[in-house]
């Protein structure tokens, strides 16, 4: 009896594994993709430029008044440059 139940369990597992890709292909993820693309466009578009400019002004004033040291100020500049360049880097890697 145990060999029959193990055979049935093996068959059920095979059906689950074989139907997995078909179920994954039928899911429509366009709303999620639209939301994420909107976030990327907001961060790298005109709003992102304004936020980056305000951040650089704040960092420069903080460095000028001695609140930040120069190394911390440079890390903020590197972070802003990395955020702005992220879509270009990703497009260079995955676009053929």
Keywords:
single chain; 96 residues; mainly alpha; 86% helix
Structure write-up:
Helix 2 crosses helix 3 and helix 3 runs antiparallel to helix 4. This protein has a domain of 52 residues. The protein contains four helices and no strands. It is mainly alpha-helical and 96 residues long. Helices cover 86% and strands 0% of the residues.
List the helices and strands and how they pair.
Blueprint: H1 2-25, H2 30-44, H3 46-64, H4 70-94
Offer a concise description of the structure:
The protein has 96 residues and is mostly helical. Helix content is 86%, strand content 0%. The chain has a domain at 45-96.
* Distance between the ends: 55 Å
Give a count of the beta strands, DSSP E runs of length 2 or more: 0
On the 0-100 scale, what is the average pLDDT? 85
Number of helices: 4
Task: Name the overall outline.
Answer: elongated
Using the CA coordinates, give the radius of gyration.
25 Å
What percent of the residues sit in helical stretches (DSSP H or I)? over 70%
Strand/helix succession = HHHH
Biggest beta sheet summary: none
**Unreliable stretches covering 5 or more consecutive residues:** none
Strand content: under 5%
Give the class from helix and strand content and strand pairing: mainly alpha
């Amino acid at each position: 009896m145990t060999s029959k139940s193990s055979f049935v369990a093996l068959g059920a597992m095979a059906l689950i594994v074989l139907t997995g890709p078909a179920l994954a292909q039928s899911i429509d993820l366009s709303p999620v993709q639209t939301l994420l693309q909107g976030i990327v466009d907001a961060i790298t578009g005109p709003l992102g430029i304004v936020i980056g400019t305000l951040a650089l002004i704040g960092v420069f004033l903080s460095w000028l008044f001695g609140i930040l040291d120069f190394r911390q100020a440079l890390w903020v500049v590197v972070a802003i440059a990395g955020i702005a360049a992220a879509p270009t880097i990703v497009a260079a890697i995955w676009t053929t």
